Predict the structure.
Amino acid sequence: MTQDLIDIILSQPEIISAPPVLIDIGASGELHAKWKKIAKHSICIAFDADNREMGFTEKETDTFKKLIVFSRVVTDQSESEIDFYLTKSPYCSSALEPDTERLKVWSFAELFQVEKKIKLKAIHLTDALREAKIENIDWFKTDTQGTDLRLFKSLPEKIRNNVIVAEFEPGILDAYKGEDKLYEVIRYMDELGFFLSTMEVKGTQRINPKELSYFQGFQKKAIDKCLMKSPGWAELSYINSLKRGAFDRRAFLLTFLFACLENQYGFACEVADEGYGVTQDSFFLELKKKAIAEIKKNNRQWPRVMLKKAGNKIISYF
């Protein structure tokens, strides 16, 4: 999808007056790859825990139309402070306590070793939206090490049901006490009327520290290449199917755009049809033509892609 077409969609009056709202909970500090083409038109809300400050900062940036950063941990509870567990790997730190007993059979268990338990300033997600005067979320992205689903569920029903894309990273194995699990996310989002656009399963090796001690140096580092990985967690991306409730021109435009960013061009065609049916706006017919053109372009590239995959597979045997 070309940047020109993206800019045309995002320059529609309904979107100019109400820019896309992107929420990033558990932000890594890097711009989400899927947002690169829409960031300059969008409002982003992020959370950066820092005990030195309270409230939030709001500013225009080179990346986003507006960036709102809260210096607190986001939670689904009405508490001003919460316990936070700092682990050996900062990427495993969480508001939930690591389940060391269940983790001990996995090769990456040491990453979850708690080095310090601290108190951090916290804010309920709904309160954060109210303070920022934000009334809707279009793209919800969260990676909080165990609390993704409960945060999404804590949103007011009207906001939750109108989210267009929702991304989660739930656990499969038991890493944290009381964490939200993959099967819970799948069940809930299916009931809510979203469909699973992508799922990338990540994993680790089942080998406990005692067995791991038989290996040293390079052999220990190469364990992840020698043992089968078991599924440990997954990166999920959901899209609202727009089958529940009434949606306006803005919702259809953004759903079409986000579907294309997810490479879901077939669904984008459906959205264009529905958008035209509701609004009788011929712009949606033009958008459908663009989506079909993308599918045809991908079809032409398919043989080359398959040959490349086959070549890579052959090379991997040597």
The chain has 13 helices and eleven strands. The longest strand covers residues 194-205. The two ends are 37 Å apart (CA to CA).
